[in-house]
Amino acid sequence: MENLTEEQQAVVEMVRDFAATALAPHAVQWDEDKYFPMDVLAEAGALGMGGIYVGEEHGGSGLSRTDAVLIFEELAAADPSIAAYISIHNMVAWMVDAFGTDTQRAAWLPGLTAMTELGSYCLTEPGVGSDAGALSTRAVRDGDHYVINGTKQFISGAGSSAWYIVMARTQDTGSHGITAIMVPDGTPGLSFGAEEKKMGWRSQPTRQVVLEDVRVPATNRLGGEGDGFMIAMKGLNGGRVNIGACSLGGGRTAFQKSVAYLKERQAFGGPLIKQQHLLFELADMDTELETARTMLLRAADALENGAPDTVKLCAMAKRVATDAGFHVANQALQLHGGYGYLAEYGLEKIVRDLRVHQILEGSNEIMRLIVGRLAVED
Amino acid sequence: MKIVVLIKQVPDTADERTLDAATGWLNRDAGDNIVDEINERALEVALRVKDGDKSTEVVVLAMGPDEAAKAIRKALSMGADSGIHILDDALAGADATRTAAVLAAALRDTGADVIVAGNESTDGRGGVVPAMVAEHLNLPLVGSLTTLELAPGKVSGERQGESGTLSISAGLPAVVTVTERTAEARFPNFKGILTAKRKPVTTLSLAELEVPATPAHAVIVSHNERPPRVAGTKIVDEGNAGTLLAEYLVENRLV
Description:
The complex is a heterodimer.
Chain A: H1 6-23, H2 27-33, H3 38-46, H4 65-78, H5 80-99, H6 102-114, E1 119-122, E2 138-142, E3 145-156, E4 163-169, E5 178-184, E6 190-192, E7 206-217, E8 221-222, H7 228-264, E9 266-267, E10 270-271, H8 276-305, H9 310-335, H10 347-355, H11 364-376
Parallel strand pairs in A: 1-4
Antiparallel strand pairs in A: 2-3, 3-7, 4-5, 5-8, 6-7, 9-10
Chain B: E1 2-7, E2 9-11, E3 33-35, H1 37-52, E4 57-63, H2 68-78, E5 82-86, H3 96-108, E6 114-118, H4 129-137, E7 141-145, E8 147-151, E9 154-160, E10 165-171, E11 174-178, H5 190-195, E12 201-204, H6 241-251
Helix pairs in contact in B: 3-4
Cofactor (chain B): FAD
Family (chain B): Belongs to the ETF beta-subunit/FixA family.
Protein name (chain B): Electron transfer flavoprotein subunit beta
């Protein structure tokens, strides 16, 4: 790969080994059983994957955003669903590290970075998705506490997480009236909806998070009142790059399976790879994936260095990579013919898992809205 | 306790391993070179002792070309404290006897309570170097353990034989070798990978070791490529396939 340092090579090698032994052999079964492997997540946490770009002070690994791209690609090459869950968890851990006080960081980060305590990101609501600034969950100050009421939708890890970072309205001033509050599991009034039945991402739970008169100390607020939307969006910049890397990893595996299959499968008097139109298809798939990788590494670099065009590059990279990953996986399924459609071959799972990457962390339509608005703004 | 683990860099068994057609020596560029898995297990034994008692010092020792530094780095990233790299062009092609003499010379001053190694490497599979090292150092060899316990002043464990299980123990210092039935090695964590570079590695040349000079070195007398696989025997059933199959198995001593 391109100009990786010795450490990066060692990081990639380790994650690849870990993913190949701890994730890949179980991915299809976990998907079928809708099993969320929390013990394996704790193993990943022990290796440093719970706070990849969280500072080292409270258990983070202190790696770069570029390292994160490399890591998520490798994890997703084995299992996009688990990789994506780890990506969301990292977003939460980073938000605590970036916006928490020293006291908050010391209290919350050790468990989050070790992944013995999981974190859920709670922004979307049943009636509010892309227009997140219009959310209606409300937090009302009552002495030293906030009392929170509302419902959060499509929450990854809900019911299994130790921490829910809830974006709630503290003022009726649109996106400027939103505050981020850490709600611990077990708080009276916090409950969860039924586990959603999903097309993909079946090895991680998705539920509603219901908050009914949930009282948490005001000291659980992350950042200031009204900072919530900004914190949520900053978290998403990294989330977008990471989810894009998950698409890249899944797409890479689908591509590699296709190359192997076309070399082996005999039809019309020889291996399918001899059919030039199929070779061209592989060429396009490979090119799409490399394009995605290039965009992701560029966005990660911008994020790492706080470049002025970070938001734009993250949005572009997210769209390019998640479209590429899904398209490549879907084409790979087509190239495998009927076998691609069978669960046993592990390809249809990749297609199902990668489909949602085009929808979440800001849908790809929203990515174009962001890029378009930035392109025409004065 | 001070534990020295012997590690060797070998070609990855997942890759195609080939000999150089002209010289007959191993073609090291044909695939990835990695820490021998059996050595990683030996290291795991040492690291578990360190997990239980932080005062344990784990040193890895490797003899090999420049690239062996990578194997040492991997061991350091897994948790070893320091490394010793015996690096000398004059050691290219050293056979087991020479290797053992050199390793023993490097080990003599380490003050190791115990030296742990794999029972045999996945490339050469000679399985004699640890015993030769023990002989040079005048230490007991506690070989081919499948389980073991290291306590202050004592090593004990089990060795599986064809006819039973042997419980063995020895006082320290000693040379211990383990088989692939001991615990699987851990993954290095990110922190380990990032700190590995800051851990000390001592590079030793032959001149710095007290090893008697010897003109002896391994030579390749002849080598052949592995013959291509031939098609298997086909038994056509004409009512007597069972008998033919049984005869075939007996004839080839497969039953």
